Amino acid sequence: MGSATTQALAASVQALAAASGVTLDTSRELFAAAHAVGDSSHLSGALADASASAAARQNVVDAVFAGFSQNTRDVLKAVVTERWSDADELIDGIEELAIRAAAVADSGADIEAELFGFSRVIAANSELELALGSRLGGGAAKGELVERLISGSVSAPASLIVSSLVRQPRGRRIRQLLNRAMRIVSSQHGRVVATVHSASELNEAQRTRLSDALSRRYDGKVSLNVVIDPAVLGGLRVQIADDVIDGSISARLADLRQKLAG
């Protein structure tokens, strides 16, 4: 992410936070805007054109998205006022705002856990992952497939996020999309996500102790996504962003083998 995009995204997130009455429809419209901009090089170029005035870019928003709510158009106009490193990062920014709006619309739903649960379903089903990642078949059909798969099992915001992302992956793998969405939702809720690999399920007391310990270490609330992985043999392997804490028996055995071989 370029420095211009970093600043533009921060300002855009603030604009969304300042918007009144953010609903799931706001998220739905922002996803639709991201798709429209992603599908049109002419539109993405016009909205990301730093040589054009901010007013001109805002006029494009009003013209193209006239059917959207005033609230959504105001957020989009704040987005295009900023200077983005390139058109792709502008699209990423609008998509992130859509995910954040879904999280705001239903703060009571455990969206991170629902997204994580679906990512584990994908990980366990190579045929499904291949179908969703294939260049064959339209985005709309893939979105409808996902909606049927998760209908009734996840909240409306989680369903909207997943189905919207698979409709326009833009070359990204489905699990990559879900992991990014989890990080964004957690950030919106003021949390960071820790993926924990354990040989067996953690009980509630173990989850609480681990979450508290990580929260102290990372100076903020940490939510846990636990993956049951017999390969770790015992102990835990914890990943937060690029940080990996590996206290598993398998890691210690590997280290021992390396020392013996050396």
TrEMBL record:
UniProt KW keywords: ATP synthesis, Cell membrane, CF(1), Hydrogen ion transport, Ion transport, Membrane, Signal, Transport
Keyword DNA-binding part of the UniProt annotation: no
A Pfam family this chain is assigned to: OSCP
GO (cellular component) term, any one: plasma membrane
Cross-referenced InterPro entries: ATPase_OSCP/dsu
Topology of this chain in the membrane: Peripheral membrane protein
Record's protein name: ATP synthase subunit delta
Lineage: Bacteria, Bacillati, Actinomycetota, Actinomycetes, Micrococcales
Gene designation: atpH
